[in-house]
Structures are given as C-alpha cells and as structure tokens.
Amino acid sequence: AHLDRIGAVDEKVHAFLHVDTEGALAAAKTVDAKRAAGEKLGPLAGVPLALKDIFTTKGIPTTVGSKILEGWIPPYDATVTTRLKEAGVVILGKTNMDEFAMGSSTENSAYGPTGNPWDLTRIPGGSGGGSAAALAAFQAPLAIGTDTGGSIRQPAAVTGTVGVKPTYGGVSRYGMVAFSSSLDQGGPCARTVLDAALLHQTIAGYDPLDSTSINAPVPPVVEAARNGNVKGLRVGVVKEFGGEGYQAGVVQRFNEAVELLRELGAEIVELSCPSFDLALAAYYLIAPSECSSNLARFDGLRYGLRVGDNGTRSAEEVTALTREAGFGPEVKRRIMLGTYALSSGYYDAYYGSAQKVRTLITRDFERSFGQVDVIISPTTPTTAFPIGERADDPMAMYLADLCTIPANLAGNSAMSVPCGLAPEDGLPVGLQIIAPAMADDRLYRVGAAVE
Ligand code: GLN
Asked: Residues in the active site (predicted)?
C-alpha cells in the first residue's frame, strides 16, 4: 500500500531519490514467513520506513543529495540500516535531502526540491525534507533523519510530524556520511510520539564501530511515550527563544502549549540563557570547519563521480574538476568558510572563539537543568516558507535553525512535536522540547502530554 501511495503522489512531492520496490517487497515477505513460522517478532517488524539518503545501504545507491556520489553503490550498511533490517523494518527507499545535509529547505539537493505536502509550493524543511514529507504525505509511517543543527526537528515542525534528535552519541554514526562529526546525530521521525519512541529504541544503543557512541543503556523512551504524565515536572521557558523575527501564530501556539502543560500539572519556570544569542554564529563556524575536513575525502578518486580522467591529467587536476562539477554552491561556500576559519592565523580568532562560545552555551544548559527538567520553545521562528523565498539569501535560510542549534552544540536530546496550526496561514507549528543528555525519555513524556 505504501509503495502504491509513493507511486501515486511522489511525482508531485518528490520525497524519494530512490525507491527500492524489490527490496521492500522481499523484506516484507521475509517478515511474513517468520510470522507464519511462529517466530517472535519485534514491534516494528513489517513496518515500512523511509531512510534519509545519508545512511549507507549495501547495494542501494546513496547520494547524500550530491552529484559527487551519483552512481556510488555502498559496499556496506550503516549501523542504523543494519538495526532496522534486523528488526524487520521494511526500507522503502532513500529520501531527498539538502546536499550533504547542508540546508534548511531541501532546495540544496542536487536532484531538485521536495514539496511540503501541506502546500506543495512551500518547503518541507531541511535538510531532512524528504523524510518529513514522506511522513506527511502518508508515503511511509516511519522515517529516519539526521540532525546537525536542526535537520530532524525543523522539517518535523513545518510538516506537522514528530522528530527527535537523540543525545549526541545515542545513535551510531557508523555509515552515516559525515558533515560535522561533533554535531551530527541520527534519529527517528514519525507521525506520533509513540511511533518515534519505538523507532528510537530500535536504532539507539552502543556501537563499537562509532568511537563517540555512548556505552550505556538506552533511556526508557517507549515507557515514557506511553506514560505522558507531566505532573510536577519543571518546564523551563528561555527568554532568548523569542522576540523579533518570530511569527505571531507560532508564538500564539507556543503560549497555548505552555498553558496546556501548566494545566496538566507542570511547573513553568522562566529562564535566561544569554549565550544562546551567539549559537547561530558559533555553529556557522564549527559546522563548516568540520565539513571542510570531512569532505576532503570526496576527491574524485575514491567514490562516485570522476571528471576529466582522460589519461593526460594529474590526480590534482582530476580532483579539482570533479569537485567543481560535483559539489553544489552551498557545499562549496561551507568548504571555503571552514578552510578559512581553520587556517593558521585565523584559527584562534574564528574556530577557537566559536569553541569557547560552545562551552558557554553548554554551561547555560547545565545551569538551567539545575532548575528545570526540560526546556521548551518554538521549534522554528516561522511556519514553512515558499520554495525559492530564501534560496539566494543564506543568512535568512540559516535563521530557520535559530532555536534548534543550541541543543546540538551542547549534545543534548531534543524533540519537535506538533502543537497546532498557525491561524494566519493554516500551516503546522512545532513545539521543541530539550532535555539533558541521556534523559531522552523526558522528551517523550512531555511530547505524549502535548500531542
Ligand atoms: N540547516 C542547518 C545547516 O544548514 C542544519 C543542517 C542539519 O542539521 N544537517 O547546517
């Protein structure tokens, strides 16, 4: 049924870069056979899923939304892919995304934009716009995204779906193409909080193949999603998440969510986190710096695209020609920014300062989590904007992640859950919930209460 739905609507939505009809049907049949044989199956066995095209899939193309990986077939599965397969999840295909996960609208995909199913002329968020759109268009009940600065939560917010960035280190990064390694985190996307929890539980947990994977039990996310009791919970509202630039309808729905939590017995505490105002600036030095190092591996020799290799050119020339043709403008912009920020003579002024700001943000969170159990905010300052509106204005695009970036810089867990439609445009609004590292279960408790 989901493959039929994809067939019927994906020409318009363009959530998928690759649909694996054969593989999906084979996986579903395997689950059926196991069920018929009386084998005990997990809760997600046989459930279809849309996988962001940043996770390697053995034998299935993985482009990361870039021309530079066009035609590359990975020889191995990411740990997330392996865990999904082991749980009997049926992978329907690979979803569209901003090239190398750099963007907030999916317009930076080398394969064309994805439409927001609520209004196809608007963006579905990014970089995981394909995964979020697949959920909102009922092409898949579950999806996987990655969140470096908001790419799970912001698409969830603007498509009326649920998205979770687990604690940094909570879900393995092995086989997840690296953008900014100290920030990147894979996580679940779904239409309900409980579905997200079941998926979270399936993909999370220690992986010896990822050196930053946390070797501790996965927080009890499914129990929390079933519980939803917020009585006595201390909920922080940060004054820096608000003010100029926030759409009236977004603020209205956020305030209603605050009132709802109060009615349900939560204690609302006002907080100030002064360093949050610097988060966006710090992020746009740290993420490009790490990307400039990570993307050095795309040299035209090892993977995918190779341009100009006619036997007369040097390896350096082939690398330069391949990168020129294979990387899009935003990726080039970030590689240049990052290379500059890491250069000797500039390192202390830019990268070094950004790292100090990162520490200040972490301290703001630590101080806050001494007083509250979770922090809430709007996920995004505005609802989905029209495709093209911010395409030529990187600064306007970067502002879409104003509220989501601090949690990445500190490594906390965070969720976006729908909290109604903005009255002025009828588009979905997301409530962001942030919890300390390894307290991901609190997200699900609060998410279940407000959903
Ligand atoms: N929009 C942010 C960026 O462009 C975040 C991307 C992400 O989380 N992958 O970097």
From this structure: 52 (charge relay system), 127 (charge relay system), 151 (acyl-ester intermediate)
